[in-house]
Write a structure and sequence with these properties.
The chain has two domains: 7-58; 69-161, no CATH class. Strands 1-2 form a two-stranded antiparallel sheet. The protein has eight helices and two strands. The protein is elongated, with a radius of gyration of 26 Å. The longest helix has 17 residues, at 145-161. The mean pLDDT is 76. A hairpin with a 7-residue loop joins strand 1 and strand 2 (91-99). By secondary structure, it is mostly helical. Helix 1 (7-17) packs across helix 2 and helix 1 crosses helix 4 (40-47).
């Protein structure tokens, strides 16, 4: 039969589940400075924090799965397919799902920090990509040759995606 936790241990658990570090949690729970700094691991074991984290879905397996999902993040964007044949002042638009490079980068950066593999000066990656066409002539149906080529290429991608 499991023993009941002391008031300090209950407070420690509460602060850990709120996201504080082991030392911060121990100090806030009323443990001495020496106990917090030198024996926080012992307090952690006494409260059985791994079990509590697992109950909240914060075990290593779940966190790894969530990290993988974050590295596959997507977002929905709207693209111009072609001028509307019924109304020359309008265009036909389509929503498509594309990789969210910014979110993926932030996820990877967080994973590297947690794993202790992030260099001290950080990592800089340019995640800006061009995905649209100029809307300057969209209402008139007049596109430059390059805009027309991009528009048709994107239209084909969308049509292939939804077949």
């Amino acid at each position: 039969m499991a023993r009941e936790l002391s008031t300090k241990q209950l407070l420690y658990r509460k602060f850990r589940l709120q996201g504080l570090s082991k030392v911060e949690s121990a100090m806030n729970a009323g443990y001495s400075r020496a106990m917090a700094y030198h024996h926080a691991d012992r307090v952690e074991r006494g409260v059985n924090m791994p079990m509590w984290f697992k109950r909240l879905g914060m075990d290593d397996e779940t966190l790894s799965r969530k990290c993988k999902e974050g590295l596959e993040a997507t977002k929905v964007i709207e693209i111009v397919l072609e001028p509307d044949p019924k109304d020359p002042n309008k265009v036909i638009r389509k929503k498509i799902e594309v990789p969210d490079w910014h979110a993926r980068h932030k996820h990877l950066e967080t994973i590297l920090k947690v794993a202790g593999k992030m260099p001290k000066n950080g990592v800089t990656v340019n995640t800006n990509i061009a995905v649209g066409v100029s809307h300057g002539n969209a209402g008139t149906g007049q596109f430059t040759e390059e805009e027309e080529r991009i528009r048709l290429e994107m239209r084909e991608q969308v049509l292939r995606h939804y077949k």
